[in-house]
Design a protein that fits this description.
alpha/beta; 27 helices; 14% strand
Length: 733
């Protein structure tokens, strides 16, 4: 029998589940079983859990349908558990290092208590200071094991399930389970408190509970708020049946009704049935008020008295007085010019133009990436929708003929942003852009995340300093209605990096459609345009940006590489778009394609890719052509930028650490050999999941035409896709 069974519901937190599981498996105390509870076998969380189960026999995934809720998921985990003690983690919580060893040592001191309560940190992981809300409560508890009557203020009503360890034989022997409905933690905490005969506390933080940016679902308005009174009645009825001492009942009663009054005083949580909620709460209050109960002082005491009297009108009036002046809405940054600002405010009051779409790519660099591909497909499938591309001053030449555009900062720019129903971007619109009711914002992204993104950058000082305010970043995320994903890995990482209420569209990247629709003639034409010799092997070298560098450094002597790699090798140099300094040119066997408008064209022209950690590798893998990773500074990059997975463990092809290794891989042909193909095949199965040549069509139908998800064309299986042919004759998988 393992010492601990750790149960982790995972609904809605697949992107952060790996962090919770890692925090458990990395514990120095290893006598445990880890039970992730997933929605079903074919879900993102189930895929994550299955991967852990393959690597560690202590991981035992089980399934519980979403309709059962978090309480049902925990009950499923309890039924599967075999450990002496049960711990509950939310899927986005983490155990602190050494937590289980500390817990085991405390249990050795106290003996087999029914419940051991411990401290936790409430962590606002995007911004703000963590807090330890139960520390004052546990500080007043007796030092050793004790009967609950000795410390009536210590109850599970104030201590959530993930802040305690429960003896499994106690839970099963008393038929304890999480109740159905909402506010199930309150019901569970109250019932276990009433059943426990011997408890103890541990005055140490064992867990970090990360507050969801969107807030608790229980705080949202809706009829589920009435479930709170069901849980309160369940606990108080059980307390009456047990005939507890008055002092213990009074503490429990006061804690329960503190929760009830908190909801009753916030009518925004109850769009309907407010008076019915108050009346039922009043009946419960009168029926279960313990003898000798003294109401607390201050405003809370007044609320107690009004609830006991059933004075709903007076209760509402008190709430209005306490609320005082409503906080003024903070103004968002606006256009600088007064006249433009006034015009923008005026345009925001005009009706939305239902047939207007605004596109922007890379902060206005021109017609590129996913927005351009969606725009082109919309011309075909939704010709009634007019489009305007946003372009920064000086980049007007980057717009193709016939594509309407507006220069960023101009009067036309603010006008279309104010009136367009559809706004499509692969980065983010300006801080001052207002999300209007009825508008539809589509975030397309512009790569698959290997490096840390969004709020996950906060722990990396160099990157965090360049990112600016994470609160403002999250404010921009709040405008998104849809977020595009090319693979399930991206879906999960976007959930972590950009938490929001948007809908994830696992449709693939529209910009990659061309990798399956281009012909051999297209490839030959692009190579001619770029100046690639007909008999040459074109190697695309695309290094990523280094946050700790002040400018572009190739990291490789490209002329020397060409000489060492073979007489027929030419290099297409594409620096990160941060370093686009205008039209490049050729120098010997080096062709600078950094300024070329389309990275997709450059990929089609290349016979092989050499990159370090650039996300271009995920796009290029769709072509099923050789990829070589040049990782001369992987350890430095990983520490300064942060990564989501170990690229060295699962690369898309051979890995070179030095210029000599890189040249040898090309000189002996192993860059295109069977080993390279095997690595690339596994990489494609993981990261080319949804790219099949029809991503743009799916996006247009779902977002611009409003077709339901079930009507969207399904993704073509990877084995049935035929990528665009390469120019050179290479060994293919």
């Amino acid at each position: 029998m393992p010492r601990f069974s750790i149960i982790v519901p995972s609904h809605g937190v697949a992107g952060r589940l790996s962090q919770a599981l890692d925090s458990v498996l990395a514990q120095s105390f290893g006598d445990l079983e880890l039970i992730p509870v997933c929605d079903g076998p074919d879900t993102p969380a189930a895929d994550v859990a299955a991967g852990y189960a393959e690597r560690d026999s202590r991981v035992l995934p089980v399934h519980s349908p979403p309709s059962a809720g978090r309480g049902g998921a925990r009950n499923t985990g309890v039924r599967a558990a075999t450990g002496a003690y049960l711990l509950f983690l939310d899927g986005d919580d983490v155990l602190v290092p050494g937590a289980l060893a500390t817990l085991d040592a405390r249990l050795a001191e106290t003996g087999d208590v029914d419940v051991l309560y411990f401290e936790h940190l409430r962590t606002p992981w995007w911004e703000g200071e963590p807090s330890n809300p139960v520390q004052p409560l546990l500080a007043r508890a007796p030092a050793g094991a004790f009967a609950p009557d000795r410390a009536p203020q210590v109850t599970g009503v104030q201590l959530p399930p993930w802040s305690a360890a429960y003896r499994r034989s106690f839970v099963t022997g008393r038929d304890l389970a999480f109740p159905e409905g909402h506010f199930t933690d309150l019901g569970w905490g109250g019932l276990t408190t009433l059943a426990a005969e011997r408890v103890a506390v541990l005055r140490s933080v064992l867990l970090r509970h990360r507050l969801r940016r969107q807030g608790s679902r229980l705080n949202l308005p809706g009829p589920h708020q009435h479930d709170l009174l069901d849980q309160v009645e369940r606990v108080l009825t059980r307390a009456a049946e047990r005939e507890l001492p008055a002092e213990r009942t009074r503490a429990l009663f006061e804690q329960l009704f503190a929760v009830v009054l908190k909801t009753a005083s916030r009518p925004e949580r109850l769009h309907s049935g407010r008076r019915a909620f108050f009346r039922r709460a009043c009946r419960l209050y009168r029926r279960h008020r313990p003898a000798g109960f003294r109401v607390p002082g201050g405003s809370l005491g007044v609320q107690h008295r009004l609830l006991a009297a059933g004075a709903y009108t007076a209760f509402r009036a008190l709430r209005s007085v306490n609320q005082g002046m409503v906080k003024a809405v903070e103004g968002v940054p606006r256009p600088r010019a007064l006249r433009t600002r006034l015009r923008y405010a005026r345009d925001l009051r005009r009706p939305l133009d239902a047939n207007l779409a605004v596109y922007c790519a890379y902060w206005g660099r021109g017609y590129a990436c996913n927005p351009a591909a969606i725009h082109a497909k919309a011309l075909e499938l939704a010709p009634h929708i007019r489009s305007v591309f946003l372009v920064e001053p000086g980049q007007e030449h980057a717009m193709p003929s016939g594509v309407a555009y507006a220069v960023i900062g101009s009067r036309r720019y603010w006008e279309v942003l104010a009136r367009a129903k559809y706004l499509v971007n692969n980065a983010n619109f300006a801080e001052g852009v207002v999300k209007r009711p009825g508008s539809v914002h589509l975030q397309t992204q512009h790569g698959t995340p290997l490096k840390k993104m969004g709020v996950d950058q906060s722990t990396y000082p160099v990157v965090a300093a360049q990112t600016g305010s994470f609160a403002k970043l999250l404010g921009r995320v709040d405008r998104w209605d849809f977020n595009l994903s090319a693979n399930r890995h991206s879906t999960q990482m976007w959930e972590r990096a950009f938490p929001g209420s948007y809908e994830a569209l696992e449709y693939g990247y529209p910009r990659n459609d061309v990798f399956y629709t281009a012909t051999g003639e297209d490839v030959a034409r692009i190579r001619r345009e770029l100046g690639v010799p007909e008999d040459a092997t074109a190697v695309l070298y695309a290094p990523t940006h280094r946050d700790h560098h002040s400018g572009f450094e190739t990291g490789l002597d490209l002329e020397a590489f060409c000489e060492a790699a073979g007489d027929d090798v030419v290099v297409l140099l594409r620096a990160h778009y941060f370093y686009d300094r205008g039209p490049g040119g050729s120098s010997g066997r080096i062709i600078d394609v950094t300024a070329h408008r389309s990275s997709e064209d450059v990929c089609l022209a290349a016979d092989a890719l050499v990159t370090d950690y650039s996300s271009i590798m995920f796009d290029y893998a769709n072509l099923d052509r050789p990829i070589v990773v040049y990782a001369d500074d992987w350890e430095v990059y990983r520490e300064t930028r942060g990564v989501y997975f170990d690229l060295m463990a699962t690369p898309p092809g051979p890995v070179a650490r030095t210029p000599e290794e890189l040249a040898r891989i090309f000189r002996d042909g192993s860059y295109a050999g069977p080993g390279s193909s095997e690595l690339r095949g596994a990489f494609r199965r993981r990261f080319c999941e949804f790219d099949d040549g029809r991503a743009a069509e799916r996006v247009v139908r779902r977002v611009l035409l409003g077709e339901p998800p079930e009507a969207i064309p399904p993704v073509i299986p990877l084995a049935e896709r035929i990528p665009a042919p390469a120019a050179a004759t290479l060994v293919r998988s």
